[in-house]
Amino acid sequence: MSYNDIRISEQLRVLEPAINDFIVRYNASDGPAGGGDRQTVFLFPGGMASRLVRAKTACDPDGPPNQVFAYDEVWVNVLTFLGGARDLKMKKVDANDYRDKRNRIIVADGLVNLFGFTPYLGFTAWCALKGLDYFVFPCDWRRAAYDIGDLFISHFLPRFQQLVRDGCNNADPLERFTLIGHSCGGMIANWALRSEAPIMAGLDNVITVATPFYGYGGQPHRWFEGETYLNGIGGAYKKGIIRAICSFPGCYEWMFLPEETFLAEQAAFLADPDYPLAAYPSVDFTNPAVIADPYNPQTNGAKGRYPSTSSTGFDPVELAGAKALVMFLESPLSQEQASKFWNIRADKGAGRTRHETTWKWVPPTSPTPIRDVSLTSGDGVQPAWTARHVRLDELAAGHVINITSQWADHAFLMNLPVTLQEIAAILGVPFL
């Protein structure tokens, strides 16, 4: 078995206790409140909301296929903020072959939990109250959306289906099911929507909540600045944090949309009745007439847009792969796909969410060449204009849902009563 095969096997093994919990809840439930057919609801958490654990010992890719590991939490605990986040670094051995630092496998295991609270406590409690058969699918958010999506569809779902059938008198949890993706979890849900795998035949709905269909302004900063809360006192760990971030394939997918997508859909962006996008949101610092497309960085003599590969590990090959993926996720929907697709976006008030940026040529990279120059309506992280597929409303009227509330904060949007009310309407269950 390859390293990746062993990692997948370990990921499925680590998730078995959560599947067993699902089976216990399924057998104890009479089904949805208010009656109706049973349906399974899968939640893909947002970026960095899933708990990651790291093997205590190294995996031997040339060793036996039945290697089993014990794990320590690596994301997120006290040590994470004391340089431990650098252990999340990945190494690309070959195309689509990524290994964890020192070959110590990292897998997702539940949600981050601080003092007994998870980012989705309100959502899961509501699902339990409504008798919904829910499962939170934790994601290794370092990895690409297609990587996580393939793990879910090709490996997890068959195992999940068989174990639930075995434990629930042959009841099929995939006879009817819905995918809900929060933030970048919605990118995985979007990818899964486009799957033609037979096991997806029972898919009823795909709901995204605050998902950056067209990127957002936060990611470009990280290539140069790392993460403030991980960089350490005086930036002691900053270089290592940047190197770790540059090794994550998933991070290359979160940037503003390719220029060609904007030009192809410019009229549709401008025609958004609630949150129009009038101009491309990333431009050159010196000459605002020059677009600074993160996926087509270009050069200016000896200067470029990104830090050097030698100093940070920034990978132009990953950038090209991410561009292909985001353009696939932005591509037109079929009528059938649109009929199942719902986009929920939030607005906590104008001037709350960073919007347009300017970008200097580099080097130098310090101070940061990225500057936020405007704010717009959104949830404090994602601008409202990015959080819907630009053509969805044309194909399925009413499937783009706006939530307007001063409490519509990105991180906790899934717990907001108004969000749960909209999800209840889509699922056909009573909210209260």
* Largest sheet: spatial strand order: 7-1-8-9-11-16
Report low-confidence residues grouped into runs of 5 or more: none
Give me the secondary-structure category: alpha/beta
- CATH architecture field: 3-Layer(aba) Sandwich
| CATH class categorisation | Alpha Beta
Measured by DSSP, the beta-strand proportion falls in 15-25%
Percentage of helical residues? 25-40%
List the total number of helices. Answer: 13
**Amino-to-carboxy terminus distance:** 49 Å
Mean pLDDT: 96
Question: Can I get a quick summary?
Answer:
This protein has 432 residues and is α/β, with parallel strands linked by helices.
Topology of helices and strands:
Blueprint: H1 3-28, E1 40-44, E2 50-55, E3 71-75, E4 90-94, E5 97-100, E6 106-111, H2 121-129, E7 133-136, H3 145-167, E8 177-182, H4 185-193, E9 203-209, H5 219-225, H6 238-246, H7 259-264, H8 266-270, E10 282-284, H9 309-312, H10 316-329, H11 335-340, E11 341-347, E12 353-354, E13 357-359, E14 370-372, E15 375-376, H12 392-395, E16 400-404, H13 417-427
Parallel strand pairs: 1-7, 1-8, 8-9, 9-11, 10-13, 11-16
Antiparallel strand pairs: 2-3, 2-6, 4-5, 12-15, 13-14
Helix pairs in contact: 1-3, 3-4, 5-6
